[in-house]
Amino acid sequence: MTLVSPAEIDLRLENILSKEVPVELRQTGSLPIGYEAGTPVLSQETALVIGPESQVQKVEHVVASIDLSSVITSISRQVDLKAIDARGVIVNGINLSPTQVNVEIPITQLGGYRNVFVKIVTTGQIAQGFYLTGILADPPTITIYSTDPELAANMPAFIETKPLNLNGAVEGFQKDVSLNLPEGIGVVPFYIPGSPELMSSTVAKLRVHRIVIWAKHGVMARSDISVKRAADLVEYAETAAKYEYLNLGIGEIGEGLDAQEIRTIADTFHIQQRVF
Question: Environment class of residue 124 by beta-carbon count within 10 Å: exposed (0-12), middle (13-18) or buried (19+)?
Fold first, then answer.
């Protein structure tokens, strides 16, 4: 043997160090509108960092990261732990115990919000010799909101689109279609009659609804067709209120017509409506 390369090596020995570090949960992304996250619960609140003293001393945080984007149900999952230094860089050459923690986060939908399916309504016929292989809505569900949680909860499980014309179609296509949203009845809280607050609140509600009820005061309706049509809306609301009063008086809710029966009547008499 005439040559050894390298002739020397540097050998560095370090003490093995261990320290306990609190586990931090870092939540990224945002929940869909109408949802809120409760207090997270971790299966382990601390982790043991073991390794060479110089590396262990660099560890400032032990983190578990979880992405909340598009989450609509409560979370219960195993999440990897990472040791990072003060600059947020992962520290290598150390061991963690445990390497994972179970993270539980309750996710709830706020009152007044509800997820409903999008039902595509079509008109017309595709070109002769062709057939429709499928039709999809993107997104397939939407979130609706009402200031009245009970109203949102009692809405149908779907929202129809305005009619999509398929007449003469010979190939696939994409098209933006408006939703046929029910207008319902707006409610304005009590304000002094004739006050600016009553005026501004009524105007805001009438931009969304065709009829507005003033709490402990009265009612206002609008129509793009005629004054008589606006008066009809008031009469409809009064009739509905009368039967609701009778229901309350006898301590039960009348069965009434179901959604399909109402749609059948509306179709028979050519009544345009956007609620059922």
Answer: exposed
